Amino acid sequence: MQEDWTEKYRPRSLSQVVGNESAIRAIRRWAESWAHGVPKVKALILKGEPGIGKTSSALALAYDLKWDVVEMNASDHRNAESIKKVAGIGSMTQTFTLDGEFLSSHSGRRKLIILDEADNLFGREDYGGAKAIVDTIRESSQPILLIANDYYELTRRASALKRLATSVTFRRLDPSAIVVVLRSIAENENVTVSLDTLGKIASNAGGDLRAAINDLQMIVEGRSHLDAEDTDVLGERNQEKELSRALGAMFGAKTVREAQDATLNLDKMPDELEKWIEESIPSEMKDPEDLARAFDALSRSNIYLRRARALQHYGMWSYARTMMTAGVALSRKSGRRPHVSEYRFPSFLIVMSRAKGTRASRKSISSKLAPYFHTSSRMFDESILPYLSKLLTKDRELMVKLGCETELDDGDISNLLHVDSDSSIVKAIRAEIIAIKGEDEVMRKKTPRRKSGRSLAEF
Amino acid sequence: MADVWVEKYRPKKLADVIGQKIIVERLSAYVRTVSMPHMLFAGPAGCGKTTCSIALARELYGDQWKGNFLELNASDERGIDIVRGKIKDFARAASMGQNDFKIIFLDEADSLTGDAQAALRRTMERYTQTCRFVLSCNYSSKIIEPIQSRCAVFRFRPLSESDVRICIERISKVEGIEVSEEGYLAIAQLAGGDLRKATNILQVASSMGGKVDAETVFESTENIRPSEIQELLTTALKGSFMAARSKLDDMIVIHGLSGEDIVKAIHRAVLDLPVNEDVKIRLIDRVGEAEFRMVSGSSERIQLEALLAHFAYEGKNGKS
C-alpha cells in the first residue's frame, strides 16, 4: 500500500491551500497579530464541512511561520485532564509534546495548539472537555486553533467560546478548484487521466477535496491510465449530504406539499427513506406529544408500505410517502424546533449488525437445546433459557449433563456460562463430557439409544 | 444426578398428568382400544399438551415409542417444506413393531402458514391408515377449518392454583426441599397456571439453598423477562424515549423476541405500572392498536416505537 495521498499532498504553505481565500486571509491576519506579544483574540475556530482544508490550513500556517505544533484530535482522550495537560504544556512550559517528547523550542518561537474535531470531543469519556477548552484559551499565552464541522454544537457545549474566539468559515470547494488539485496529483503520480474523468470525480465529491483525492487514489491504484467509465465504481458521495439536507427541509416544512417535495428528488426507496425518518424523529421531536404524534403518523405510513407490497399495488406508496413526510413533520405542534446538525444512519441497522454474533450464539444454543426440552426455539428462549442460565452458573454437574446429552459445543457452553470460550472452566467441562461420552459410546454399540432428533433413515 | 426438573419431572404416564382430567380419561381409553383419531390440542403454554402426547406414545408403544413418534416443531420449521418433506416421509413409512399407526406430534401448529396447513390436510387424509396426527396450538382458531374438522379437538385449561401446588409438592417431596406457604403462593402467582414456569421457578429458587419462601422465589425470578419489560416501560414513562428505544432494540435483536411477544408482555405489565387507572386504560387501548397494526403486517419495531412514544407522552401527561 502506497502512502496516503491526502497526507502526501497536504499543502506545506498557506499559499498552496486551494480555495477559501477570505478564510486564509483571516488566518494570516490573526497569525500576524502574534508577532508582538499575546493579542486579544487568542483562538480561532475554523468551521466548515469535512475535507475542505481546515486542518491543512492550520498545519500550513505552522509551516509558514515555523511554529511548533501541539495537536489533539478525536483519536486522543480529551477529557478535562488530558486537554489541560497537553494544552498546559503547549501554552505554559513550552517543553513537551503530547507524547512527552522533548520539543526543541527556540526562545520566542510560538507553539500552535490545534484542537481538531473540537465539536466531537465531548462524549461521556471526554467529561469536562468543554470547560477545559475554555479555561485553556483563557490561560494560554500561545495561539490556539479549534477546528469543527459543527459550530453550533461546539458553542452549545461551551458558549463562552463565542466571546473568546473568532470564527472563520470554510466553504465547500468548487469542482473546478478540485480538478486543479487532482490534475497536479495525477501528473505527479504519472497517471494519465482526462479532464472529463477528473471532473466526474470532482463533482461526485460534492465539494469535499479530501474525498476527491481518496477516490482518485482508489481508482488509480495499480494503473497508469484512467478512463471515464472507471469512475463508475465511485460510491455516491453526495447521497448522505443530500439526504441530510432533504430531511432538514422536510422536518422544517410548514405545509404538506413542502414536506412531500423535500424528499422527492432523493434516490431512495420509500422503505429506506422511512428508516432515516424513523431514526431522526426522536432528535427532531422533543415534545413528548409531538413525538407520539409523529410516530403514529410513521406507523400509519408503514401500514401503507406493507399493504402496497402485499398487494403488489405500488400506487399506495404515495399515501405512505405523505404520512412519513408531511404526517411526521406536521406533528410538531409545540412550535419549538431543536437544532439537528446531522441525521444519522439508522441505528437499528447498526445494532442489528453488531448483534449478529450474539444472535448467532443464542440461535446455536436454542437450536440444540430446544428439542431436548420438547419446545420450539422461541419457546425455549422465552420460558426455559432465563431459568436455565441461572441454574447452570451454579450447577456444573448440570452443565456437564446437558453437554453429554446434546450437541452443545465449547462456544455454546462458554456463552451459557458467560465465560470466554478458551477459559479453563470450559476446558474442564469438555474433559468431563468426553470422559462420560466416551463410556457412553461403548454402551451405545450394545443397546442403540435414540434421541428425539433421529434421522428418517432409521424408519 | 443433576437434571433440569422440567424434563426430569415430566410425567411419563397419562395417569400422572396434573389437571386435564377429562382429556386424560379420553386418551387412556384410546390406549386401551389401541385406536385414536387425529387430534388437535389447544391451550396455553405449560398446561400439558406436549406431556400428554409423549405419555400417550409411551403407553401405546412401550419401549418402541421413540420409533413411532415424530415430534416436530412448526414454529422452527414453518413453511410448506416441512409438510411435503419430513412429515410426508414419516407418514408413509410403515410403523415399527406390531402397531397399526404411528403418531406425528406437530407442536405450535398455529405457526404453520396457510399454504402449509392446506398441504397438511391432504397428507392427513392420505396416510390416515398408517399415521395419526396430534397438532398442538395455543388457539384452535388459527388452524384452518378443514383441519379442525378432521380432528378431535381437546381444549386444555390453564391449571388452577391447587394444580400448581400438587406439582410443586410432588417435586419437592422427591428432592427433599421445604416450601413455605408463601413460597407456594408466590410460585403460583408468578406461574399463572403454567407448570413449566412453576417448575423452573421452583428449581432456581431451591438452587439458592435452604427453604423456598416468597423471598427466594422473587429473588430467583428477578432479571427474568417481566422486570425487563417493566424497566422498558418505566424508562419510556419517564420520558427517556431514546433510552427506552435502545432497550427495545436489545430485546428484539439480542434476545430475539418477536414484536408480538413484546407487545403481549407490555400488555400484561401495564396493570402494574405506577400511573393512574385512567392512563392504564388509555395505554392498553394503544397496546391493542399496536398489536393490531403489527399483525396486519406492519413493521414491529415502528409499531413498538410508536407505542413507547405514547408511553412517554402519557408519562408526561400524568405528571402535569
Describe the structure.
The complex is a heterodimer of chains A (459) and B (320). Chain A has 22 helices and seven strands. Chain A is of the alpha/beta class and 459 residues long. Chain A has four domains: 5-169, Rossmann fold, CATH 3.40.50.300; 175-233, Helicase, Ruva Protein, domain 3 (Orthogonal Bundle), CATH 1.10.8; 238-345; 349-446, no CATH class. A five-stranded parallel beta sheet of chain A has the order 2-3-4-1-5, sandwiched between helices. Chain A has a two-stranded parallel sheet with strand order 6-7. In chain A, helix 2 runs parallel beside helix 3, helix 4 (80-93) packs parallel to helix 5 (129-139) and helix 13 (270-284) runs parallel beside helix 15. The longest helix of chain A is centred in the middle third of the chain and has 24 residues, at 288-311. Chain B is α/β, with parallel strands linked by helices and 320 residues long. Chain B folds into three domains: 2-155, P-loop containing nucleotide triphosphate hydrolases (Rossmann fold); 161-221, Helicase, Ruva Protein, domain 3; 226-317, Zinc Finger, Delta Prime, domain 3. Chain B contains 15 helices and five strands. Chain B has a five-stranded parallel beta sheet. The mean pLDDT of chain B is 87. Classes of the chains: A alpha/beta (459), B alpha/beta (320). The interface between A and B is large, with 59 and 70 residues.
Secondary-structure blueprint of this entry?
The complex is a heterodimer of chains A (459) and B (320).
Chain A: H1 5-8, H2 21-32, E1 43-47, H3 54-65, E2 68-72, H4 80-93, E3 111-115, H5 129-139, E4 144-148, H6 151-157, H7 161-164, E5 165-169, H8 175-188, E6 192-193, H9 195-204, H10 209-220, E7 225-226, H11 238-252, H12 256-262, H13 270-284, H14 288-311, H15 317-329, H16 347-354, H17 356-369, H18 377-383, H19 385-394, H20 396-405, H21 410-417, H22 424-446
Parallel strand pairs in A: 1-4, 1-5, 2-3, 3-4, 6-7
Helix pairs in contact in A: 2-3, 4-5, 8-9, 8-10, 9-10, 11-12, 12-15, 13-14, 13-15, 14-15, 17-18, 17-21, 19-20, 20-22
Chain B: H1 5-8, H2 21-33, E1 39-42, H3 49-61, E2 69-73, H4 80-92, E3 102-107, H5 114-126, E4 131-137, H6 145-150, E5 152-155, H7 161-175, H8 181-191, H9 195-207, H10 214-221, H11 226-237, H12 241-254, H13 259-270, H14 277-295, H15 300-319
Parallel strand pairs in B: 1-4, 1-5, 2-3, 3-4
Helix pairs in contact in B: 2-3, 4-5, 7-8, 7-9, 8-9, 8-10, 9-10, 11-12, 11-13, 11-15, 12-15, 13-14, 14-15
